[in-house]
Amino acid sequence: MCNMDINEAKKEIDELVDTLNYHARLYYVYDSPQIDDYDYDMMNDRLRKLEAQFPQLVRADSPSLRVGGEILSGFEKVQHTVRMESLQDVFSYDEVRAFVDRVQTELPSAKFCVEPKIDGLSVSLEYTDGVLTRGSTRGDGNIGEDVTANIRTIGAIPLKLSRDIEQIEVRGEVYMPRKAFEQAVEQQELNGEQPFKNPRNAAAGSLRQKDPKITAKRKLDIFCFNVQRIEGEEITSHKQSLDMLKELGFKAIPEYEVFSTADEIISKIEKIGEKRFSLPYDIDGVVIKLDDLTQREVFGSTAKYPRWAVAYKFPPEEKDTKLLDVELNVGRTGAVTPVAVFEPVFLAGTSVSRATLHNRDFIIERNIAVGDIIRVRKAGDIIPEVLCVSEKGGSQAHFEYPEYCPVCGSKLEVSESEAAIRCVDPSCPAQLHRSIVHFASKNAMDIDGLGPAIVDALLKSDLIRSIADLYELTEEKLLTLENFKEKSASNLINAIQASKNNGLDRLIYGLGIRNIGQASAKLMCEKFGSLESIRNATADEIAQIDGFGEIMAQSVADTFKEPHFNELVDRLVSYGLNTVYEGKKIDDRFAGKTFVLTGTLPTLKRQEAKEIIESFGGKAAGSVSKNTDYVLAGEDAGSKLVKAQQLGIRIITEEEFLEMTK
Predict the structure, then answer these.
(1) pLDDT per residue over 185-211, tens digit each?
(2) Which among 21, 48, 54, 613 has most CB atoms closer than 10 A?
């Protein structure tokens, strides 16, 4: 190869690229490989060696570009030429019929293209003269992020089309196949990492990795379902565009068909629904679109949705199973939470055998007892939940809580003011473990390296018996524990010491006062300014804070009256933790204004947006009401956005929000 001239190299590189792309298309798009992996890898290896020797010959559609390149510093914003609209959801066949009737009242000859709704992340793919030039996320529909380097790693996305088209922009749904999701979660659990919640979140997180090599390992896939714009050719119907996508080398959305009546459409929905959980990928509904593109222009769009399409969302799958046991988990505040353990059932693509029963009232209202046949489902196709008892089978009318804590044996306390039953012994091992984990968590004191497993080891070795004991740890003490080395011991001690300088609001939140979250902890700090002032405040004084109620205020006042809690606080103060609040308020431009955040923002994390709002004197609320001033909406905004539209509340994008802060 060393003596090969550039013309010979170009000829072989061209042959290898064309051959590899052909077989990759058979593998990724048509799932019908003609050669084995070894032969493909050998050709790929040969190509990379040639490209290394002749870098000037690397083609834009070379398979070598799929493995990922340099780590990205960030994602540039992309202004979409054609708005990437979301669809209005419908949840019943009556609503499907109403949509069809509405369209056919104006256009009696209207036909509809029906296709599965893939549960993934929407992206735009742009091609110039048949070559992929940019891939971007949907973002808020108007502005997304440039993720071209990561898009290239997805094998089903053609780097070069089967024929040259002057300009074409294609919309697709990136997803993580169920098998790849299970493999990723298994690896995360082995690494001690927080596992993905579901394939959709996994796909979204993988596509926004700054290291394309990580994206390449996640085995993402795509179905393309729309031509956003095209120059050089003309298409007149949606079905024609999907046929063209397949011809050009895209992996088009499967099972699309055109129908004329609501009955035909509903029959198709039912057929797709029957095979929903046997598919190797997740779908959460069926999309019904007006097929004729000219007719679409007549119908147009509302401010949020196109009027020519709807998405029928499948109802959650429900199944009956036998309740085998009720486990009791003791939380950091002492609340004893019942968990249903039942015979495994397959729901929404995974096997489930556990679900929370919330509290005593939930159990009594539904007469739930061990041995009963219960009905379960996954809320949002994610979180298992118990709906009701389908058939009584147990000897009890309902499950009875024990008299004593299942962990420490202390007598449980039944409160008349709340449904929770609590262990009130502050030395209960279960409470202590969860309290320390919470104290060290990212949103509290952010002690890096102090996760549940380390806390468990520290407690079992008797190195700590309370939160305050963390600040008496030394490297020498940590080195007595198994698996601790000098570097890891030093890092943990440094992280513990660094936490002393955290803001007072983090400390207040980390102490785990009942009913006090991050936002309320910050509000208290802004009101009183110091730990000592908060300790001395009365319930009436605390209740004057905007957003506080009597229960929250009384909870704070009562907590600071408890001797063991005050002893803990005194110890923390003696170790030099910050006890004075230094707010980051910039100015009062948002004073008196209430914001509600919904959906996924293009660049800001939700916590970052909240901090910006608060730094300008505003308030970030969790729900929309008539008192809401702005709703900051991102991708996949849900019911909050709908309610805001109904109330006539101003809806802003991230771009508009950031303009308001300049």
Answers:
(1) 887 766 666 677 778 888 888 888 888
(2) 613
